[in-house]
């Protein structure tokens, strides 16, 4: 899970392999999702990330594109058993990766054992080789809480910690949060930066800070030198 970033001399092909090309807008239609899949295939992104009720997706037999689905999204205020069932169904319908949202309120209250148990319930429902990413809403937490939640995710067997849903009013990814998360997991887990990554410059800054995956809805803009994507929203 270590980050081998060594500067800004990334080709678009290199950068695309960090990206989960994402569509999580509530108003997204089946046609929108298929267009997102087609765009991901054309751009060569690592994966496509969608809402679980949009599964299964239709991919060419030769496609290496991974499929990710969210779980307990976007509030995290779901019973652990519901999150676990949602994740298991998504995997049954073709998801290779699950991005789950923690109970952020539990983290704010310092109930890190509760956070760990919530993550562990989902991990049990979707064991390896399914990749489990844990969305912590870093912008809503202080540094001590970020560290504690990252440690809880590691203890529960997660594969990644992830900054944000992109829907929280506190904001999305920040370089400081990514750096702190990366230092905390020390290469044992991946770090996914998501929320507000709309330019190549910001994407590379996140990678330099320790991100090993990026959640991006405006991937075409990011991969074409990073012009802001005015159509990108909600992630």
Automatic annotation (TrEMBL):
<comment type="similarity">
    <text>Belongs to the DeoC/FbaB aldolase family. DeoC type 1 subfamily.</text>
</comment>
<dbReference type="InterPro" id="IPR028581">
    <property type="entry name" value="DeoC_typeI"/>
</dbReference>
<dbReference type="Pfam" id="PF01791">
    <property type="entry name" value="DeoC"/>
</dbReference>
<dbReference type="GO" id="GO:0005737">
    <property type="term" value="C:cytoplasm"/>
</dbReference>
<feature type="active site" description="Proton donor/acceptor">
    <location>
        <position position="99"/>
    </location>
</feature>
<dbReference type="GO" id="GO:0004139">
    <property type="term" value="F:deoxyribose-phosphate aldolase activity"/>
</dbReference>
<dbReference type="InterPro" id="IPR011343">
    <property type="entry name" value="DeoC"/>
</dbReference>
<dbReference type="InterPro" id="IPR002915">
    <property type="entry name" value="DeoC/FbaB/LacD_aldolase"/>
</dbReference>
<dbReference type="GO" id="GO:0009264">
    <property type="term" value="P:deoxyribonucleotide catabolic process"/>
</dbReference>
<comment type="pathway">
    <text>Carbohydrate degradation; 2-deoxy-D-ribose 1-phosphate degradation; D-glyceraldehyde 3-phosphate and acetaldehyde from 2-deoxy-alpha-D-ribose 1-phosphate: step 2/2.</text>
</comment>
<feature type="active site" description="Schiff-base intermediate with acetaldehyde">
    <location>
        <position position="162"/>
    </location>
</feature>
<dbReference type="GO" id="GO:0016052">
    <property type="term" value="P:carbohydrate catabolic process"/>
</dbReference>
<dbReference type="InterPro" id="IPR013785">
    <property type="entry name" value="Aldolase_TIM"/>
</dbReference>
<dbReference type="GO" id="GO:0006018">
    <property type="term" value="P:2-deoxyribose 1-phosphate catabolic process"/>
</dbReference>
<keyword id="KW-0704">Schiff base</keyword>
<keyword id="KW-0963">Cytoplasm</keyword>
<feature type="active site" description="Proton donor/acceptor">
    <location>
        <position position="192"/>
    </location>
</feature>
<protein>
    <recommendedName>
        <fullName>Deoxyribose-phosphate aldolase</fullName>
        <ecNumber>4.1.2.4</ecNumber>
    </recommendedName>
</protein>
<keyword id="KW-0456">Lyase</keyword>
<comment type="function">
    <text>Catalyzes a reversible aldol reaction between acetaldehyde and D-glyceraldehyde 3-phosphate to generate 2-deoxy-D-ribose 5-phosphate.</text>
</comment>
């Amino acid at each position: 899970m270590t980050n081998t970033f060594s500067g800004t001399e990334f080709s678009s092909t290199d950068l695309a392999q960090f990206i989960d090309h994402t569509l999580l807008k509530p108003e997204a239609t089946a046609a929108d999702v298929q267009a997102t899949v087609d765009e991901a295939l054309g751009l060569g992104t690592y994966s496509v990330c969608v809402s679980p009720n949009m599964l299964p997706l239709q991919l060419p037999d030769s496609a290496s594109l991974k499929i990710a689905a969210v779980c307990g999204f976007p509030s995290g205020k779901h019973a652990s058993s519901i999150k676990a069932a949602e994740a298991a169904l998504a995997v049954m319908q073709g998801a290779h990766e699950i991005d789950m949202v923690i109970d952020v309120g539990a983290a704010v209250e310092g109930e890190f054992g509760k956070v760990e148990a919530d993550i562990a319930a989902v991990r049990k429902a979707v064991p390896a080789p399914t990749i489990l990413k844990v969305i912590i809403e870093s912008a809503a937490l202080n540094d001590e809480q970020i560290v504690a939640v990252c440690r809880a995710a590691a203890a529960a067997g997660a594969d990644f910690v992830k900054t944000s849903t992109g829907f929280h009013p506190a904001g999305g990814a920040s370089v400081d949060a990514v750096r702190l998360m990366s230092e905390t997991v020390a290469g044992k887990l991946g770090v996914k930066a998501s929320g507000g990554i709309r330019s190549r410059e910001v994407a590379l800054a996140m990678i330099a800070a320790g991100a090993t995956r990026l959640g991006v809805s405006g991937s075409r803009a990011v991969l074409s030198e990073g012009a802001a994507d005015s159509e990108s929203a909600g992630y």
